[in-house]
Amino acid sequence: AQKVTQAQTEISVVEKEDVTLDCVYETRDTTYYLFWYKQPPSGELVFLIRRNSFDEQNEISGRYSWNFQKSTSSFNFTITASQVVDSAVYFCALSEGGGTSYGKLTFGQGTILTVHP
Amino acid sequence: EAGVAQSPRYKIIEKRQSVAFWCNPISGHATLYWYQQILGQGPKLLIQFQNNGVVDDSQLPKDRFSAERLKGVDSTLKIQPAKLEDSAVYLCASSLETQVPWTGYGYTFGSGTRLTVV
Predict the structure, then answer these.
(1) Inter-chain contact A103–B99, Cβ cutoff 8 Å?
(2) Which of A27, A33, A59, B4 has its Cα between 20 and 30 A from that of A52?
């Protein structure tokens, strides 16, 4: 069975600090996909990134970067120079790419990020 | 491109009443998902449709929850009778893909329906 663990329940930082959100996953499949979503107070899930299990290259998008390490089953998310608008709940999710589980996203518990001015 | 539409946005009902939520996926998306997100938790899949057939409903509490996707487009999720623990946000998502290998491309969530059972 697949599982996602976000050990940090809440993180509080001051604006312009860098912050890393941890994500550890478990799966028996060799083909799988990892996601990060942002959920602002309005409630919608905003897609941030999708990464497949065969692509271990780190990715950077503006102030956001992701570190994927299969050896430790981790897919961590870093926000550089955080801003108040980054305050939200962030979810890491996993989906196996084959079998009848295709498309089923298993989410972590979420990390509440609060960025203070 | 229009996103996944859900209604109503909010709903407050008393326990033991019934309630229904509606979802209209992105045009052409064959696969539709309903998730339940209880406060403080990540979303959990309730049911997955491919066109108008059920792919996975193993997590759906079938004694009180039902869902249908007539004609393979819109979907309705119903709770009857509602319990206090059903208070949650119900999210609908849709995806273009219908088979493995699945890549997750274009997987899109709606804004959700926030249900409060009192």
Answers:
(1) no
(2) B4
